[in-house]
Amino acid sequence: MSPSTGTRGETVPTVPSANPADDTAAGVDIAALLERGRAMSTPVLRAAVDRLASPMDTVAAYHFGWIDAQGRPADGDGGKAVRPALALLSAEAAGAPPEIGVPGAVAVELVHNFSLLHDDLMDGDEQRRHRDTVWKVHGPAQAILVGDALFALANEILLELDTVEAGRATRRLTTATLRLIDGQAQDISYEHRERVTVEECLEMEGNKTGALLACAVSIGAVLGGADDRTADALEAYGYHLGLAFQAVDDLLGIWGDPEATGKQTWSDLRQRKKSLPVVAALAAQGPASARLGELLAADAKSPDLDGFSEEEFATRAALIEEAGGREWTTQEARRQHAIAVAALDDVAMPGLVKAQLTALADFVVVRKR
User: Fold this and answer.
1) pTM score of the predicted model
2) Is the separation of the CB atoms in 173 and 158 below 8 Å?
3) Where do the segments described as Disordered lie (predicted)?
4) pLDDT, mean over the chain
């Protein structure tokens, strides 16, 4: 089944048909798996946020969707909960009960949301999960402070376990966080460059997205006593899954349906992001690639793109597609997905856990938000 090439909101790649050995993965209830991760981690996550001084506790609660802008209880969209699900499965991959992975799940979620708070401010994003972002509601200062506080809480959650395994887990989380920050710095710097290579873009996305997913899928195993070889193999799965995840995100950032993504139309084009479809299109040969390069070079000289019409963004998106950027990114998502799933063969784990990790990988590359 090939990806859609003309309809907004139908851009995510489809995974090639599973072979007979993957039949168990096809029967996994992904919704239940994600809900388990959310249900087991959220109480601990909320307790951690409650430790924050006022008003940071309230601001964080708004960000997580637990309250609205007026402080009233809300049932907001807290995200897909892929990382908590991976952390719990990680513990099970090491032969430990899923509960062992909960502190790791919470720590990774805290770091992930620290990055979202800061990214929204740096990117000027006014919407996340179908409502105003924290900096838009509570101001830039609170977005920065609460992000910093969440990062500190993440380390505290692990270190207060006071075990050798917790120390190992904290080191992995810290390394992943540094790589995440490196990736964000690269992403920002690329916005002001006319040309970025595909290799540079993949390195940036590996840092920005792959590193934390790699940590999520190894941290539970480390807390469960797994050796470094096992944790490293799980990290390889998570890293390549992160690249597949980001490739899909890049597709959605241009062609995604705003009602599904919760972001503006053509959001990545508005922010001048050198995402994979853009970079791949610019690297291609042909008139569409050349014309796209001319337009983006002219755009770089504009102080902002707020005055652009929808048609102007649509023109750029059409050129990216004509130059092959959309199809290349779709195929790259599939390639990274295949590498991620293959990495699971290096870990001795229960068959059901392997099937669940495989199914989660399939889910990541078949989505609309």
Assistant:
1) 0.89
2) yes
3) 1-23
4) 90
